[in-house]
Amino acid sequence: MESKDWGSMSQLVTTPLEQITTALNIIPNQEYLLQGSVLDNAVEVLLHRLRGLCDNVDTSPEPFYDHEMCFTIMSMESGTQPQPLSLRVRRATDYPDMPFQLRYIGVPEGTGNNARPTIVRSSIDIGTSSTIVEFLTELGCRLDFEYVARGYMFRKGRMKITVSKIFKLNNNGKPPDATEPISQSYLVELSVLAPSGQDAIAEDMRNFAEQLRPLVVLDKIDVKRIPMSMS
Amino acid sequence: MAYSVNISIEAPVENQIQEITFDGQEIYQTPLSMSESLAKLAQKIDFSKTGYEELKRETEAIDNGAEEENASKDNFQSSIWPWDSVRNKLRSAYTETCVLADVLAIAKEKRYLVLDPVQQEQHDSKSMTSIYARKKALAGAGSVLLTGAERLRASQTEAARNRAVPDFHIELLRLRQNWRLKKVSNTIIGDLSYRTAGSKFAQTGMFEVTKAEEESDRPNSPPPSPGANAKPASALRVSVPSELQGVAYIEVLCSQKDQEDLCSASINLQHSNVTTYGADVHWQQRLESAQNVLFCKELFNQLAKEAVQLHAPIPHMVVGNQIMASTFPGIQLIIKLRHSTGEGEKKAGHKSDHDHVLEHSLHQLLREVHHKNTHHPFPHPSSAPLGPSKRRALAGPTAADRYTLLEMTQSETLLEQIIKQAQHFFTRMRTEFVLDSIVKEVKDPLIVTHWNALNSPTLSCVKINIITHGYDTVCRTSLVIQVGEKMLKCVCRDGKVMHMSYEPQELRDLIYCQIYQHQIQAVQSLAKCMGWHYLANSSHLGIGAVEPLGNACSCILASPMGDRLIAVRCEPQGGVLVSIAHSPKKDFFSGQLVKERKWENLGGGFKEVRWDKMEGKNFLNKMELLMASLTSS
């Protein structure tokens, strides 16, 4: 299927841009996101609730153990102020044979006005091989920060719910060991990847978040407005 | 009062403690100002308790004080007047004391006013009325309790009498435990479809739950037999749409072409007597059978769709409730949807060739599809998109080619899978038959077949051992035959692999060939034990009559002395031929051509042994005896 597209692209040299623009309407490149956090001692209850609410009650929750590295590079477009562009590389520590995931996350929209039920941000991700880190370094990217996320994920239709604990990596230690938790709580994320213009899913997410209400409050979190007490 | 001593009271030097913090630090109250402390003290005075004289003295004192205060605080009287209540109380108290003093003064003279004790009899009458009121109230409360108790008792006896009649709500609760229900305005709607389990069938499985009517329709129905009376009637009625009523199942037949008339005769059985059994079956069974009907319909629908879309060399046919798919030349797989709304008529209909295993496989296949629809793999790392399988996720980074991508999109349809299973079923059955018949035909080497218990729906395995009774340690030929869908694969001991088609004759040839090879090999290893030399052998002898199946095998053995020869020839048609030769012969007559005795050492002149007259239980036994006799003589 995909290869057919490639073939036609090489034949019609004039149209690749058009094809990309048409493809962009189908590619799920918008991430609808709600976030929240829950304390360590309450996470069991939340997991229990999520198991009941999400698909496949019969199976146990799927664990994950990811290592994420964030790289930044200054984008030097002519005539503009150089702006940092950040790219995230994520790999599954517990599935070494799965591809790495390179991800660009855009500026979140919808944090300010209340009309939108969730944060919407553009998200482009692609599976890559493990040499992506060297590739980015060669490009001139600089490792900004890295962390380890470990927790469980759930599915409910198109929605993905992750409950994860964020660990700090100690000085140059390998990810499986030498980690310490960043806080006494778990990060809860409810996200859907969809093509642009499918705002109906945001309402579904809102309704689902309502069902988790007293256990965890999922909301639009504007990262820039959080007071940075840690640093 | 005259001896009263003035006691001066002072506030303590230390301030009062307002709060002690956790680290022991004491937080003091700020000291009161003069006016605040005065107001506080004034509020402590209980005017109702103080005696007249004291009161008077105090009032005077306070009045004086107040006047002094007033003078000092004149300038902010208008805005804040904290002494207002004190003044009012003092004034009224003063008025009262004045009046009391006047009254007392008048009463002392006893001219105008006499003090007399007052009779208080109205208090008595009041207590009597309160007793009456209490009595009445108690009686009212008692009657309320009594009526309540009466009603409870009545309902309890009612419940005890109707113990057999089940409660609608309890039944509803039970229904709710196993089935999906929801309330739409005034009706209760249930859903028995497999949609939550991953089905994508368009037909809905809605049913409605209602409360069963009371006994009103009972007199109309004929009185039930005493045996049937024991069955409790349900307070709950379930109405299932008519297309889901009754009993359905998928019938799978594997039939030869010439037996087709048997199958087509049994189609018009449905709708013979419609819905006579409806209300009196328990709702659980009704719902279960309705769900089964829905499942069978989905299964058949899916199979029919695939049968139309699939491009088979012999196209599959869908006629009404029947799908015909060809498996092997002359053998058809017939899948039928049987849906009967009445009971009992189909049992007499046909003794079925119905294949329960294949029916079960069909159910299993559809359930697998359902399961796959709901159980998608989770992405790793967790930021990856939901949905693509692991192979799809790996396709990009590993630069999969066009062929691999195309291969990923293809999946086997249910019909293809069931046809494969049917083909395997046939191939296995034929293999079994061929092996069994050979085992029956061939007595001399024993053929032992062992079917593996572990197999898959499309692959099974049989191990064949060929041995001779009494000589099983001398020689044993073993081979494994893997039975696939349309072909057999034979793996011999020596690693030779042979592929065969589904035609049973090929397997037959192979087994016969193996039998004769076994005989020759057994003779050779027996000869080794007996000290004989084996000179030559050929498993596919090119001389002699042409065999219809396979080739003849042969071998030549020489005695330890080298003066006797035995030639053995095994052929599928003629059986075993054994010939012997002596070299040199004991008696020599020189002739015209052979003049000297030495030429007799060249051998030749085989004479056939009349094998059926030989002593011995089987071929090897006879050979052993033959060799023994030739060695000794």
UniProtKB/TrEMBL annotation, chain A:
Superkingdom per UniProt: Eukaryota
UniProt-annotated location(s)? Nucleus
Task: Alphabetically list the UniProt keywords.
Answer: Activator, Nucleus, Ribonucleoprotein, Transcription, Transcription regulation
Q: What is its main location?
A: nucleus
- A Gene Ontology cellular-component term: ribonucleoprotein complex
Looking up Gene3D superfamilies in the UniProt record yields: Hypothetical Protein Pfu-838710-001
Its quaternary organisation is: Component of the Mediator complex.
* Protein role: Component of the Mediator complex, a coactivator involved in the regulated transcription of nearly all RNA polymerase II-dependent genes. Mediator functions as a bridge to convey information from gene-specific regulatory proteins to the basal RNA polymerase II transcription machinery. Mediator is recruited to promoters by direct interactions with regulatory proteins and serves as a scaffold for the assembly of a functional preinitiation complex with RNA polymerase II and the general transcription factors.
Q: Which family does it belong to?
A: Belongs to the Mediator complex subunit 18 family.
* Protein name from the UniProt record: Mediator of RNA polymerase II transcription subunit 18
**Which gene is annotated as encoding this protein in its UniProt record?**
MED18
From TrEMBL, chain B:
TM region(s), chain numbering: none
Subcellular location(s) per record: Nucleus
The biological processes this protein is annotated with in GO are: regulation of transcription by RNA polymerase II
Keywords per UniProt: Nucleus, Transcription, Transcription regulation
Q: Signal peptide: which range, if any? A: none
- Gene Ontology molecular function, alphabetical: transcription coregulator activity
Domain of life of the source: Eukaryota
Quote the cellular component terms of the Gene Ontology held in the record. Answer: core mediator complex; mediator complex; ribonucleoprotein complex
**Family of this protein:** Belongs to the Mediator complex subunit 17 family.
This chain belongs to the protein called Uncharacterized protein
